[in-house]
Write a structure and sequence with these properties.
Glutaconate Coenzyme A-transferase; nine-stranded mixed sheet; three-stranded antiparallel sheet; 21% strand
Length: 282
């Protein structure tokens, strides 16, 4: 069915500037961020949230790194539900995140990647819990108040039951979007699919805009259909200083400069990002 002019799905209606997209996320929101570590994260949006002075956010992500670290550094986070957190092997731990947790500047609900995924699945499937294996012997169920259930089929085994995790927003970085808001990701999409199904609202940052016809030719490449997406912003290089395969790799010198303990001036990093985004958009 062709979208009608002025309808909710009219081409171009969902396209916003980066500042407009960030302004849709109010203080106190819970936000699931796509990508993994330094790969294809919606980092341009994260930095714009900082520029706009957002506060009391909750971050939800299985494997955050730069995104959670810079949000902690800027004082934008109140709470996080996260699995493994690191700047990957080259740069070690996310030190601003670690400082925020140790000094109780943020509340941490620690997860395994599998338990966080189970909670998102429960929300996406509309069920009150999702079974999760692999947590036997861990302190996470007790710390987080998760319940155990017996196998109703009589094996005698118990499994941990993870309650739903429903982000207010999921924000993902994509290789391309259509004028309607269809989303295409090349390579691994990490946990972006289940995040997009679990959240109340989905926002997308994309490297480029492609004609609707391109998506219709290969619908199997659409990760998130347009009717699930509220708004998109086209920001070439928006995953910097991380990678977006196959367009660009991690900018290791930029990450090294960010984690340099001698430099505590975050504004320099944010200014460098603005300059780079402006060059990429020219």
């Amino acid at each position: 069915m062709q979208p009608q002019p002025g309808s909710r799905d009219a081409p171009g209606d969902k396209i916003k500037s980066l500042a407009e997209l960030a302004s849709m996320i109010p203080d106190g929101s819970s936000v699931a961020l796509g990508g993994s570590f330094l790969h294809r994260g919606p980092f341009a949006l994260v930095r714009e949230l900082i520029r706009q002075g957002r506060r009391d956010l909750e971050l939800i992500k299985q494997s955050p790194g730069y995104d959670i670290d810079i949000l902690c550094r800027a004082g934008a986070l109140r709470r996080t539900r996260a699995g493994i957190v690191a700047m990957e092997g080259n740069f070690g731990l996310a030190r601003w995140y670690r400082k925020a947790v140790e000094e109780k500047e943020i509340e941490l609900e620690e997860h395994a990647c599998a338990s966080l995924t189970a909670g998102l699945r429960a929300a996406a499937f509309g069920v009150p819990f999702q079974p999760c294996g692999g947590l036997h012997g861990s302190a996470l169920p007790e710390l987080n108040g998760w319940k155990w259930g017996e196998d109703p089929y009589g094996s005698g085994e118990k499994v941990c039951l993870i309650p739903p995790i429903t982000p207010d927003f999921t924000v993902i970085h994509a290789n391309a979007v259509s004028e309607l808001g269809d989303v295409r990701v090349l390579g691994t999409f990490h946990w972006d699919r289940i995040m997009s199904r679990a959240a109340r609202r989905v926002l997308v940052i994309a490297e480029k805009l492609l004609p609707i016809e391109e998506f219709r030719k290969q619908p199997e490449l659409t990760l998130v259909p347009h009717f699930m997406v509220e708004a998109v912003s086209v920001v070439p290089g928006g995953a910097w200083p991380g990678s977006c395969w196959p367009l660009y790799e991690i900018d290791y010198p930029a990450v090294r400069a960010y984690v340099d303990e001698r430099d505590r001036d975050l504004s320099r990093h944010l200014e460098a990002a603005v300059e780079r985004e402006a060059r990429a958009d020219a």
